[in-house]
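hey m, so remember when u said the tokens were messed up on ur end? i reran from scratch. heres the input so u can diff it against urs
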Amino acid sequence: MAKKEDKGGVNYRILNRKLHRWGSVAVALPFLIVLVTGLLLQVKKQVTWVQPAEQKTAHRAPSVSMERLLEVAKSVPQAGVKGWSDIDRFDVRPGKGLVKVITNSRWEMQVDAETGELLQTAYRRSDLIETLHDGSWFHDAVKLYVFLPAAIIVLGLWGTGLYLFVLPYLTRRRREMNVR
């Protein structure tokens, strides 16, 4: 039989189990946040609560002016757009003939890329979910000093978990080899 522990040595099986157990406790909350938000991000195109469905138009050539896009954004009261500083970004989709106007308040207006007609207005949660997913919603320091170490620990848990899974098979194999 294999030695369980050398004199004054470390029992690696017990150490591995302790590391696995305490590592899982250390990453429980950050990993839960990453897991839940990751699941939501996986289905963002299918679940309109996360991200509004994209409209399509017959037009393909984006020719709407920037001024018209700002005018459309200002016309949506819930978006709270008063000027350019309230606009986060534009997402131009020539293949679908639309421009998404995304505001700092997380409202999305989908505008026909040629006519400038407002096609749809909806609240967009995917950006918020992404910042929760990477930890930056809490603070950049949390992203770097909590979520990054949690990811490294989860990688270690993956390794120790595989070891714990394979261990009984290795033990059985050693016993069979010693019997012969």
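this time it looks ok to me. The CA atoms of residues 60 and 95 lie 6 Å apart. if urs says something different then somethings off w ur setup not the seq
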